[in-house]
Amino acid sequence: MTKKGCQPFAWPLVFLFLLSAVLTGCGEKSPPASQEVSGNKDSDKEQLTGELNLFNWSEYMPDSVIEKFEKEYGVKVNYSTYSSNDEMLAKINAGASGYDIAVGTDYMVEIMRNEELLEPINHDNITNLHNIDDQFLDKSFDPGNEFSVPYMWGGAFIAYNKDTVDTLITGYKDLWKPEFKNSLVVLDDQRVMLGIANKMQGESMSSVDPKVIEKSKELLIDLLPNIKAFDSDTQKTMLLNGEAKAGIVWGAEAYLAYRENPAIETVLPEEGMYLGIDCFIIPKAAPNKRTAEAFIDFVLRPEISAEITEDFPYSNPNKKAHELIGDEIMQHPAVNPPDEELKKGEFLKDLGKAVLDYDRAWSEIKQ
């Protein structure tokens, strides 16, 4: 019995075919393990390890996406979470080993790049990078995206329950009103909260002026009687159960609260909002770097990226995914703020040594 593809022909053709078979094994012999086959999905999978250690915020990666990656690539994903950029940096800086991929906000990418805590990303393995809108690429915190790939972006908004709040809210400053005593949920994030207080003074969110930082500390101490809880994970819960009348919250949390209760309104603060781009990064000496790059590329597929936004509706830099995301999400101001509001917003920057002043101020606020 002859193999399929090796049927008998006229002798000259048989001779040529047999010669080709000797050289190629009738096309059935795999290339040596050391060779890479460009664009060959199965070959790509062979290069991956069987495990991926993902370090991320909670409520920021759907289980369904992780399960799809595990099934398609035969990789077990170990998912660990943190509550802030500072917590993530502290763990990695303290020598926490084993993380293959993490998510850091723009200014944190710059810090970690400067401290040589990151592995460069091989763009040859990120074939879906072209799906990212150009406005989110090649930013000053990581020129050429050598160490980072955009994942999601968004801002810090004001959300309030219009059924329980009588006062007009136009900006962050209104949350200092006595009406909000013991009824606010705010982000447990020193850079964002102190940055907002800086902004209220008409200063940069990343001001390094000790006088500005001190004044911001005093402003936030004055706000403490109104704060029910510091929470960077699930602010929507307190808005929905009535524990909080209002809050400074992530955009996705504002939208999700609105989706469950249309009385939850979003305010784009007149002072100008905090903005941030969250990026995939690979910590130095990651044991499964190639698998981390495969995961990044997987997430950048339009259908996968859209699935993430449907579950956790942060602003999405993946322009190809926008066509697959529901109109209600895409048109909500907490998910896609108008351009004129974005122009008033501000991204954070590396503070250098002034970060110690912020650390000290935050400790005195939270003591």
Task: Provide key terms for this protein.
D-Maltodextrin-Binding Protein, domain 2, periplasm, 367 residues, 2 domains, alpha/beta
Describe this structure in words.
This protein is an alpha/beta fold. Helices cover 36% and strands 16% of the residues. Strands 1, 2, 3, 4, 5, 6, 7, 8, 9 and 10 form a ten-stranded mixed beta sheet that branches. Strand 1, helix 3 and strand 2 form a beta-alpha-beta unit. The N terminus is likely disordered.
Shape: globular
User: Structurally, how many domains make up the residues?
Assistant: 2
The overall pLDDT, averaged over residues, is 88
Helix content: 25-40%
Fold-level CATH name of the largest domain? D-Maltodextrin-Binding Protein, domain 2
**Biggest pleated sheet:** 10 strands, mixed
Q: How many DSSP helices?
A: 14
Low-confidence stretches: 1-40
Q: Name the CATH superfamily assignment of the largest domain.
A: Periplasmic binding protein-like II
One letter per element, helices H and strands E, the order comes to HHEHEHEHEEHHEHEHEEHHHHEH
How are the SSEs ordered, and which strands pair?
Elements: H1 11-24, H2 41-46, E1 51-57, H3 63-73, E2 76-82, H4 85-93, E3 101-105, H5 106-114, E4 149-161, E5 184-186, H6 190-200, H7 210-223, E6 227-230, H8 235-241, E7 246-250, H9 251-260, E8 264-267, E9 274-281, H10 289-299, H11 302-311, H12 327-330, H13 339-342, E10 346-347, H14 355-366
Parallel strand pairs: 1-2, 1-3, 5-6, 5-7, 9-10
Antiparallel strand pairs: 3-9, 4-7, 4-8, 4-9
Helix pairs in contact: 6-7, 7-14, 8-9
Organism: Siminovitchia fordii
Main location: periplasm
Pfam family, one: SBP_bac_8
